[in-house]
């Protein structure tokens, strides 16, 4: 019955490393869980599957083992803090794009089995705009682009948006400014990005808000804990709480985009195959 339950699928991406995507993914997951949502975090940052490290969790198996048929998806799910569940992905996601029909069916089945007790699937994508990243982002229903106040962050975010718009006809993106020093800085970053997208692309960007630069993030990392859990009263945690409330009000997917099956279907589609 999993397919009757709409699941919000959100890809957290940025186009480059060092913008704090994993930090955003983990803390947004925790903030949504605190609102009563059943959250699963898919760690798709494969070369550096780092959610488990960040939270001090030990992973024995990952999504690759599920695809290979060595275990069930439930065998790889880790219990994270705050009731969130974490699925460690595998190194070299590109192999996702080359699954056999049988593996493909197995993966869809595995995710649809989870769909019954899941409201939100957050995907922490890898850095860059490689095949693995693009396939995850393209399959998601909401794309959250994380930017920071570094010259390359805006150009790399733009490159990612341009690629997704040109090759996959995606035209709706949400933007989150991370590690901002002032409230204006986030708005300014968003303005910089929209200035180029408005000029060259036919896309709609929506500003989600900013997460302030906060010393407690580093302290939490040293403890291998999420800042939201370790320092709930910090400026950073409060900002995540506000953003989670906003995310929670985003429209739920209409059929059939809300199905996890549909997400996985799109995930394993070949680029250029427009039959979905």
UniProtKB/TrEMBL annotation:
Pfam families: ParA. It comes from Serpens gallinarum. CDD domains: FlhG-like. InterPro entries: FlhG, MinD_FleN, P-loop_NTPase, ParA/MinD_ATPase, YlxH/NBP35. This is MinD/ParA family protein. PANTHER family: CELLULOSE BIOSYNTHESIS PROTEIN BCSQ-RELATED, SEPTUM SITE-DETERMINING PROTEIN MIND HOMOLOG, CHLOROPLASTIC-RELATED. Keywords: ATP-binding, Nucleotide-binding. Gene3D superfamilies: P-loop containing nucleotide triphosphate hydrolases.
């Amino acid at each position: 019955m999993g397919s009757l339950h709409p699941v919000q699928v959100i890809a957290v991406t940025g186009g480059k490393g060092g913008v704090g995507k994993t930090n955003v993914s983990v803390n947004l997951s925790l903030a949504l869980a605190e609102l009563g949502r059943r959250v699963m975090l898919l760690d798709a940052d494969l070369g550096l599957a780092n959610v488990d490290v960040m939270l001090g969790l030990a992973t024995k198996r990952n999504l690759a083992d599920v695809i290979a048929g060595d275990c069930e998806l439930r065998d790889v799910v880790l219990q994270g803090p705050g009731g969130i569940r974490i699925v460690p992905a595998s190194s070299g996601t590109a192999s996702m794009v080359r699954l056999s029909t049988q593996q493909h069916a197995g993966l869809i089945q595995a995710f649809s089995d989870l769909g019954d007790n899941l409201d939100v699937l957050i995907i922490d994508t890898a850095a860059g705009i490689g095949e693995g990243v693009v396939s995850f982002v393209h399959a998601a229903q909401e794309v959250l682009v994380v930017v920071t106040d570094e010259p390359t962050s805006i150009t790399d975010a733009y490159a990612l948006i341009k690629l997704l718009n040109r090759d996959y006809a995606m035209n709706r993106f949400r933007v989150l400014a991370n590690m901002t020093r002032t409230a204006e800085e986030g708005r300014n970053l968003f303005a910089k990005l929209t200035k180029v997208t408005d000029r060259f692309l036919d896309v709609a960007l929506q500003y989600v808000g900013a997460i302030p630069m906060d010393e407690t993030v580093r302290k939490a990392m040293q403890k291998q804990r999420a800042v939201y859990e370790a320092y709930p009263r910090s400026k950073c945690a409060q900002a995540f709480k506000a953003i989670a409330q906003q995310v929670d009000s985003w429209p739920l997917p209409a059929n059939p985009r809300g199905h996890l099956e549909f997400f996985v279907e799109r995930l394993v589609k070949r680029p250029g195959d427009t039959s979905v």
